[in-house]
Design brief:
It is found in: Plastid, Chloroplast. By secondary structure, the chain is of the alpha+beta class. The protein has one domain. The protein has 6 helices and 17 strands. An 8-stranded antiparallel beta barrel has the order 6-7-8-9-10-15-16-17. Strands 1-4-5 form a 3-stranded antiparallel sheet, with no helix packed on it.
Length: about 325
């Protein structure tokens, strides 16, 4: 028949059944423990991977071939958890790197006044990257992080540039611009401190804020405060001064200068003991809104209603130390 040559093309193997007296030799199960993974880092992120065991048992099947039985716990959930932890660690490390890069790029800009166009572009890019990694997506639901005094490190608000201008130096300069938030009373105080050769003084505005969304607050300014000048009560009198290359000895008139110094100290104590001057702000243009786009325990980024951006650092943060 035509079918015989067709089948004859395939080799055949005679099956020899195993002896009925032969007993399968059981072998002790081989257990391979896989230790748990407990990855911890200084960032406080941990992963736990439960143990699982692999058991291999050799048996003879009816064809005389070895069979293998394996019991393996699924590793998919562990892999997912480990990957998520690795991603979280990398995200935190990247955020810290961006924060430090931003602070470094602000050095020498005088809060943005002296920033070049290239530096502004770099700062803007770093701000955008940080905003995309905001660890507090609903800052108004974490008011405890907003509490406290925040030091202005950078702004694009042109309204502050005349104030920051070096034209008022060297006699008087802006020493610090800050914002203090008290979430218990929903109060905000914006303050500018000026420093001169013999005194410091401040100008502040007191305001109330209302939460309008998880990120946005409405601010209403109510009062202005002119702080009492804090005069330097001790002026060191040098032994000589140099004028046009000539040294002038001050020892002959040191007694007179000491008398003037004592009078100045008395005036300083009198003025400094006076209460600050408070006044009501006009109703026009006394409201604005503020959007917090990044917030953690050290850094805050906010955007105003005019499209301006503000970078503030928490008082006492290590980011204030270059």
């Amino acid at each position: 028949m035509a079918t015989v040559p067709l089948f004859s093309q395939f080799s055949c193997k005679t099956l020899i059944p195993s002896s009925s007296n032969a007993k399968p030799q059981s072998k002790a199960p081989i257990q391979v423990p896989v230790h748990s993974i407990n990855r911890r880092s200084e960032l406080g992120i941990s992963v736990h991977r439960p143990d699982f065991k692999v058991r291999a048992t050799d048996i003879d099947d009816e064809w005389g071939q070895d069979g293998v039985e394996r019991v393996i716990a699924s590793s998919s959930p562990v892999s997912v958890a480990e990957k998520e932890a690795d991603d979280a660690i990398e995200s935190v490390e990247e955020t810290e790197r961006l924060k430090r890069s931003l602070v470094d790029s602000l050095y020498g800009t005088d809060r943005g006044l002296n920033a070049s166009s290239d530096t502004r572009a770099e700062i803007s890019e770093l701000i955008t990257q940080l905003e995309s990694k905001n660890p507090t997506p609903a800052p108004n639901e974490a008011l405890f992080l907003l509490n406290g005094k925040w030091i202005l490190a950078y702004t694009s608000f042109v309204g502050l540039f005349p104030l920051l201008s070096r034209r008022i130096e060297p006699l008087v300069k802006v020493d610090e611009i800050s914002q203090t938030i008290d979430s218990d009373s929903f109060a905000v105080q914006n303050s500018v401190r000026f420093a001169g050769p013999f005194s410091t003084t401040s100008f502040s505005t007191n305001a109330k804020f209302e939460v309008r969304s998880p990120k946005r607050v409405q601010i209403k300014f109510e009062q202005g405060v002119i702080g009492t000048p804090q005069l330097t009560d001790s002026i060191e009198i040098p032994e000589f001064v140099e004028v046009l290359g000539q040294k002038i000895d001050l020892n002959p008139i040191k007694g007179l200068l000491t008398s003037v110094q004592d009078t100045a100290s008395s005036v300083a104590r009198t003025i400094s003991s006076q209460p600050p001057l408070k006044f009501s702000l006009p109703s026009d243009n006394t409201q604005s809104w503020l959007l917090t786009t990044y917030l953690d325990k050290d850094l805050r980024i906010s955007r105003g209603d005019g499209g301006s951006v503000f970078v503030l650092i928490k008082e006492g943060s290590s980011l204030l130390n270059p």
